[in-house]
Recover the amino acids of this structure.
């Protein structure tokens, strides 16, 4: 069937790379692999980083014009058979899908919708209401994490929710079974959670400076100067700064290193953890946010107490000095990424969800 695809946070063709853009592209590919014709219906971005009522007034007016444009085009070409929105949440509500789905009388789906109990003030009270409305009317909501699913269930008890874990396209490039002391992290350098994670990583490495390790850092961004400041106390010879690297080159870099380390503040789940696993690397991360959806503690990596630099440093140290643990978790991480979190597994699950939802 024809499916109108929309991502209010970041469209699949957005010029700036991120996990959101990557997942939007993966979902388009998965829907296509299910045999559907996917149409990117709009690039309208409703995202606002601050609680700015004026912004949402402006974007709502723009959304009204976009709805008129799309509806007019559908009157000529015919409407699609379904609408699919990726990642509507309080900072980026879906201002198009619910209205256009009603106009065309077609099923409406969401993926990775979320609702925050802490964001019910000012303009965000209104955007949260829009998210709740979208979730409530959806034929099915694909939930990437248990945390999101529980949150949506709490505000929309009658919502149709389906578990749909995050996934990747595992690379054929992977590390052979071996151990070592070469740490690696891949993350954009932005203020907020990313910078907080970099700072925690630097602090943890300072605590284990007496043992052997090197760290390769892949990423760049507006907070790069603050990231470099965070690592200033560490010997420069231990740090390898690669800057921004094209996504297709990352698997080869990972496969040449040993342990993936990233605290993961604010991570919805973290596709980079799955990519590290697919490359055969064990992971050290915090037991925080949606990270447990991508890293299985004691199976594909080590998850530590949230907010504890000491626990994070201890887990890295444990991994560095235990070659057998490295190899075991790395092999299991690759198996996990290639089976339960692969594109083929996602396509099978997506087919089942859509078939059940559309035939109820």
């Amino acid at each position: 069937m024809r499916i109108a695809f929309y991502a209010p946070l970041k469209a699949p063709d957005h010029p700036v790379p991120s996990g959101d853009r990557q997942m939007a592209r993966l979902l388009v590919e998965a829907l296509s692999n299910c045999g559907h014709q996917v149409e990117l219906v709009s690039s309208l971005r409703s995202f606002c980083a601050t609680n700015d009522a004026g912004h949402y007034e402006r974007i709502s007016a723009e959304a009204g014009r976009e709805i008129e444009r799309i509806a007019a085009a559908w009157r000529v070409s015919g409407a699609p058979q379904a609408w699919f929105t990726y990642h509507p949440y309080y900072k980026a509500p879906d201002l198009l899908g619910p209205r256009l789905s009603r106009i065309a009388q077609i099923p409406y789906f969401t993926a990775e919708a979320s609702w925050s109990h802490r964001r019910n003030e000012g303009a965000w009270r209104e955007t949260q209401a829009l998210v709740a409305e979208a979730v409530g009317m959806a034929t099915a909501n694909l939930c990437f994490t248990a945390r999101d699913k529980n949150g949506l269930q709490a505000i929309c008890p009658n919502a149709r929710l389906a578990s749909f874990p995050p996934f990747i396209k595992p690379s054929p490039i992977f590390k052979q079974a071996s151990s070592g002391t070469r740490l690696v992290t891949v993350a954009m350098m932005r203020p907020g959670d990313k910078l907080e994670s970099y700072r925690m990583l630097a602090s943890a490495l300072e605590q284990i400076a007496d043992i052997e390790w090197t760290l390769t850092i892949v990423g760049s961004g507006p907070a790069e100067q603050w990231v470099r400041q965070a690592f200033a106390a560490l010997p420069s010879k231990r740090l390898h700064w690669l800057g921004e690297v094209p996504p297709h080159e990352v698997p080869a870099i990972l496969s040449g290193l040993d342990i993936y380390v990233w605290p993961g503040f604010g991570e919805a789940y973290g596709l980079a953890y799955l990519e590290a696993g697919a490359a055969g690397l064990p992971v050290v991360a915090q037991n925080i946010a949606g990270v447990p959806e991508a890293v299985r503690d004691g199976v594909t990596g080590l998850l530590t107490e949230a907010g504890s630099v000491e626990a994070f440093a201890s887990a890295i140290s444990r991994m560095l000095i235990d070659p057998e643990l490295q190899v075991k978790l790395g092999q299991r991480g690759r198996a996990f990424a290639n089976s339960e979190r692969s594109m083929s597994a996602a396509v099978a699950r997506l087919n089942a969800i859509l078939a059940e939802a559309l035939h109820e």
User: Anything to note?
Assistant: The chain is about 45% helix and 15% strand. The first strand starts at residue 2 and ends at 6. The chain has a mean pLDDT of 95. The chain has two domains: 2-167+342-358, 182-339.
